[in-house]
Every structure is written in C-alpha cells, then in structure tokens.
Prior knowledge:
This protein is mainly beta. The protein is 10% helix and 39% strand. The chain has 1 helix and 6 strands; from the N terminus they run βββαβββ. The strands form 2 sheets. A 4-stranded antiparallel β-sheet has the order 3-4-5-6, with no helix packed on it. Strands 1-2 form a two-stranded antiparallel ribbon.
Amino acid sequence: MMRIPCPHCGPRAQSEFIYERTVDSVVPLDAPSQEAMTKLFTRNNPRGVDEEIWRHTYGCRAWMVLTRHRVTNEISECRAIGPEALP
C-alpha cells in the first residue's frame, strides 16, 4: 500500500484516497467535441512518471495532483488543487 502525502493532513494510507484520472485527460468546458473525445478515450498509458488527480475522500476531502511513477509507485510531488488550477 502507498503512503500518500496529503498537503493538508500529512502522510496517510492509500485507502483514504480515491484515484480520479490523469491530468492530461481533463477536458476544458469549451473544448470542441472531437478534441474532448480524443482526450477522454485515446490517452497514453506511460510506464514512467505521470501526473494524476486524487481526492482525500476519507480525510480532508481535498483534491490534489500527485506526480507518481507508475511502475514503482514512488511519489515525487503532491500539491493541492482547486477547480481554477485545471485546464
């Protein structure tokens, strides 16, 4: 199990968090239909470092972006976000 460093609560067990999606799959509200479909359904699945959106569901309920290596699960950065921070 991973220990995720919540920016508000400190390190917590992965079971307190819910994975949402990768940051590159967030679609702006004014995006054309074709661009939205491409971003949502034809994404890469890299084996290296990627940015992911998580929520501390059973804690402070904050949204955050984790920079995580998908093979080793090593977390190099965790930052709090709000709706204004996403594309």
